[in-house]
């Protein structure tokens, strides 16, 4: 940046933002001459007629360059420069000595010792004066620019430090939220375990007296059935039937509460064998419903054969229970999911299907589709299926077209790495 440009930069409105040149001479005619020479330098000229006055000006204002007459009566230019050197604040103001004593080496030495930046010899040549002063104005402008950019850098550094502190605070807050969540999760797990323990105790303790009640009802029917009215026998039968429904419900709730994730050992298990066991258990129902069950060879997975048998049994059992008017066809197949590296198994039927809104809710405990109210059930079967699949680290979902059939899909880990 040139001195003029730097002058422009500081000239934003206030005249005082121009660089200042201090002219010090005891003779007014010399000051007038200098003033004339430097009139168009784009700087504010400040005149001082004594060394003392010059020091006062320096005390009050920032000066870009000082032109100092060497021989002044009261305080010489060299003395003024010494005083300037002593005052830390003025140290950086360059001094150009103005002198008539050429070749005076003693003076030159003491002037340099006093911090002289340059010399101007009398009689003054205007061009030489302007060139030298211009050089120092340029240096001053550069120093100001440097200070400005240093100031900007300090501001940016300050901003960065503040941002860093904010980030540190955020990190601290995130860590405390994570700790809180972790504590909440542990608490929930504990509460869940307590709830499961409670469900187990309640179901277990309910089941025994209920079975005794059913046994007694059977005994009454058997022993005193002939002495009862027709209505009495009907009521007794209803009681036994309701008792049976309650007993199934409690047994299933008990089974559900015992299926806590992570409590079952998972080993290499053949899905073919688990399916076969389930079909054996369902043999009577399959025959009775005249269902056609078809399947492809299924994979070996990481699982529990007891639980997988139960899973197939519940899903195929439901297909039979909720069959439609057409002859029932249940199809079981599997496919490899390369993206998630899991086996996907599907139990498909051509039964009554499930209303779209209920398709995610059917896996909730005790949820039953409204149209299914006429068919005996507890609403726990699919909740058990979900628990079993989750115990295996998989997911289960249903796709269904009401009136046309349903597909139940679940994912399982392979028993061994699968090569494609
Ligand atoms: P439950 O059969 O004892 O009612 P589930 O949990 O096994 O309980 O099933 C929940 C609901 O899902 C059932 O009430 C039934 O309406 C519906 N559902 C389950 N499987 C099928 C299926 N294969 N076809 C049609 N609806 C089904």
Task: Describe what you observe in this structure.
The protein has 420 residues and is α/β, with parallel strands linked by helices. The chain has helices at 3-10, 28-37, 51-60, 77-86, 105-113, 126-224, 230-258, 271-281, 283-289, 305-321, 381-391; strands spanning 20-24, 44-48, 65-69, 95-99, 116-121, 267-270, 292-295, 300-303, 329-337, 342-349, 396-401, 405-412. 26% of the residues are buried. It binds adenosine-5'-diphosphate (ADP). Residues 318-319, 322, 349, 351-354, 362, 367-369, 372, 377-383, 406 line the site of adenosine-5'-diphosphate.
What layout of secondary structure does this protein have?
Elements: H1 3-10, E1 20-24, H2 28-37, E2 44-48, H3 51-60, E3 65-69, H4 77-86, E4 95-99, H5 105-113, E5 116-121, H6 126-224, H7 230-258, E6 267-270, H8 271-281, H9 283-289, E7 292-295, E8 300-303, H10 305-321, E9 329-337, E10 342-349, H11 381-391, E11 396-401, E12 405-412
Parallel strand pairs: 1-2, 1-3, 3-4, 4-5, 7-9
Antiparallel strand pairs: 6-8, 9-10, 10-12, 11-12
Helix pairs in contact: 1-6, 3-4, 6-7, 8-10, 10-11
Bound molecules: adenosine-5'-diphosphate (ADP).
Question: Given the structure, what is the number of helices?
Answer: 11
* pLDDT < 50 stretches: 1-16
The profile of the biggest β sheet is: 5 strands, parallel
Total strands: the figure is 12
Shape: rod-shaped
N to C succession of SSEs: HEHEHEHEHEHHEHHEEHEEHEE
Task: Give the distinct bound molecules.
Answer: adenosine-5'-diphosphate
Relative helix content: 40-55%
**Rg, Å, rounded:** 50 Å
Structural class, from helix and strand content? alpha/beta
Side-by-side strand order of the widest sheet: 2-1-3-4-5
Query: Strand percentage, roughly?
Result: 15-25%
Q: What do the pLDDT scores average to?
A: 88
Distance between the termini: 70 Å
